Amino acid sequence: MSSTRMQYFALFCLALTIVCLTIVMKKWHFGLREDFGDPVLNTDFSLLRRALLQQIRERQQEIAPLYNFTDRSSEIQSDFSNSDALRLDIGCSDLSGLTVVEFLGAGYTKTVSKVVLQQGSEVALKTVNYQGTDMRSCLDDFRDPQGCQDLVSSKIRKEIILLQRLQHPNIVKLKGQCQDSALVGGIIAVLEQGTPVQMIQLLQSPWEERFRVCLGLVRLLHYLSLSPLGSVALLDFQPRQFVMVSGELKLTDLDDAIVAETECRTSSDCVLQFPLRNFTFPCTGSGVCQGLNEMKNLYNAYRYFFIYLLPHQAPTELKHLVDQIMNTTADLKHTVNKTLEAFEEVLEVYKSGLHLQNMPSSLIKDYAVLKGMGTSGNKEYNCWPSYNHEGCMLSVHSAEEAAHICNSHPQCTSFCLNGQKTWTGRLLASFRTGFSHLVPDVSSTVYVRTAKASAATF
Ligand SMILES: Nc1ncnc2c1ncn2[C@@H]1O[C@H](COP(=O)(O)OP(=O)(O)OP(=O)(O)O)[C@@H](O)[C@H]1O
Ligand SMILES: *[C@@H]1O[C@H](CO)[C@@H](O)[C@H](O)[C@H]1NC(C)=O
Ligand SMILES: *[C@@H]1O[C@H](CO)[C@@H](O)[C@H](O)[C@H]1NC(C)=O
Ligand SMILES: *[C@@H]1O[C@H](CO)[C@@H](O)[C@H](O)[C@H]1NC(C)=O
Ligand SMILES: *[C@@H]1O[C@H](CO)[C@@H](O)[C@H](O)[C@H]1NC(C)=O
Fold it and tell me: Which is the catalytic residue, given 71, 180, 236, 255?
């Protein structure tokens, strides 16, 4: 979809929200009048009401132990943190002058909008999705807008409490919350803003960026397996539960997380079922399925992310390590701990350039090195997968690796390193067919190919 069409779509969705809100409120008033008028409906209503209250109570009971945790931790925190940190929390009063900029996403339960607060910061607001399946099926069952809002809000409440307890670079940051706002009704979670995970776009990005996503995921799973709440399993584990924030994958949907291991009597109670594979885990003496939660997460990471993102175009010398990760994860042979170790090893080898040991080092001799120079009037060519769209920009360990790449591209006559780096600290090199002038640039070095080196492949 083009960006203008996206904007129209977002506007349409916002308009729809307002229309539906109005309908919901009207229904509510109508419902009240109707129920007081008719004694038969009245009994019906009180039965339904009791059933709904029961559901709300069950949700509250599920969340209660998590609140207990927070109470204790916030006592501890307040001993250490200064009041500044507490004041940074965004509350209802900070939301009063907000401007809705963009619709970011919606699911069964929640709607997320990008807003600008009065003081100028951009955040994502998560609220009840009044058109969502959760809200609609509740209204169908109970015809009680206020009660249904409470019921659906309890999922956001659970998410907020989990976001307070579980803090990790690969979990979206909770910036604040608002309990009772005249703006939307129900509870609002204020989050750092990301962009929805676009699998198609990720598939087209450099291996280094795809590896970053998978590594972040495994670091997250390692944290969840040893979290302050115990071993956390994500029941719903799909790309749409995550967002990207500056190239880093972050979990945003936590309402389907469970924090308790499965109870069991025998190992037959500890079966993980997936469409193509089943796994059985041991039942421990204390009557819980050992490792079930972390393995459920790991296999989901494998089937929704690794398969698509990890093996494809891995650097030749890392292929063996990557294949090993794929093989062991496909059979759940290793714990999350061991899997993380394997990932960190891949990262170390990649960062150190160890995987380039067999590259001929003399290639750089074919290039004139012009330090403190940049180029203008560039003649670009395309390569894949490039960091920029109108040219060929690739990540390299060193000028030697860049020379190696330039030699293997028939269109390449020069390349330029200007100090820009990727998340691993590797250098971004721009490869070119030509340029018209050299211009002084202290942060840049131009390498111009002098001898026509053979385009032999190494
Ligand atoms: N912090 C954020 N920044 C940008 N977009 C976000 C953010 N959080 C969520 N989104 C988008 O909003 C969508 C809905 O959020 P979320 O997954 O929490 O709702 P949900 O109703 O639980 O969804 P589902 O039906 O998938 O369980 C997400 O798929 C994501 O694309
Ligand atoms: C909260 O913690 C206290 C003691 O730490 C415990 O006695 C109480 O049962 C807990 N409440 C819930 C709801 O878990
Ligand atoms: C997994 O277990 C279920 C239930 O026992 C069974 O029906 C299914 O065929 C199994 N799937 C595979 C792939 O083994
Ligand atoms: C992974 O498994 C495949 C097939 O099962 C096998 O051919 C390959 O050698 C294995 N690779 C590693 C690194 O174990
Ligand atoms: C995982 O590794 C950490 C240290 O990084 C260790 O403390 C923990 O006990 C390990 N867990 C398992 C299940 O091996």
Answer: 236
Main-chain phi, psi angles of 319, to 5 degrees: -55, -40
Structural domain includes residue 22:
no
Tell whether 337 and 408 lie within a shared domain: no
Same domain, 236 and 247: yes
Residues 152 and 224 in one domain: no
Nearest in space to 242 (alpha carbons), one of 170, 162, 165, 343? 170
Calculate how far, in angstroms, residue 65's C-alpha sits from the geometric centre of ligand 2. 7
Q: Do 245 and 96 lie in a common domain?
A: no
In a domain, 10, yes or no: no
Q: Are residues 58 and 156 in the same domain?
A: yes
356 C-alpha vs ligand 4 centroid, how far in Å? 23
Is residue 16 assigned to a domain?
Answer: no
Residue of the CA atom closest to atom 1 of ligand 5? 337
CA atoms of 148 and 129, how far apart (whole Å): 11
The CA distance from 107 to 28, in Å, is 23
Judge if the beta carbon of residue 64 lies within 6 A of ligand 2: yes
Active site residue 236: yes
CATH number at residue 78: 3.30.200.20
Residue 71 sits in the same domain as residue 209: no
In the chain, the number of structural domains is 3
In a domain, 11, yes or no: no
Site to probe by mutation for ligand 3, drawn from 270, 273, 280, 332 as the one with most ligand atoms within 8 Å of Cβ, is 273
- Measured on CA atoms in the order 431, 436, 437, 441, is the torsion positive or negative? negative
Supply the range of the domain harboring residue 99: 39-192
CA of 225 to the centre of ligand 5 (A): 9
Clarify whether residues 152 and 117 are in a common domain: yes
Whether the CB of 327 sits within 6 Å of ligand 4: yes
Identify whether residues 260 and 296 lie together within a single domain: yes
pLDDT in tens, the chain (458 residues): 445 454 444 444 444 444 344 344 434 444 444 444 455 556 677 888 899 999 999 998 888 888 766 444 444 443 334 343 444 689 888 888 889 999 999 999 999 999 999 888 999 999 999 999 999 999 999 999 989 999 999 999 999 999 999 999 999 999 999 986 555 567 999 999 999 999 999 999 999 999 999 999 999 999 999 999 999 999 989 999 999 999 999 999 999 999 988 999 999 999 999 999 999 999 999 999 999 999 999 999 999 999 999 999 999 889 999 999 999 999 999 999 999 999 999 999 999 887 677 777 778 888 999 999 999 999 999 998 999 989 999 999 999 999 999 999 999 999 999 999 999 999 999 999 999 999 999 999 999 998 655 444 33
Global pTM reads 0.84
Pocket-testing residue among 327, 334, 346, ligand 4, by greatest number of atoms within 8 A of Cβ: 327
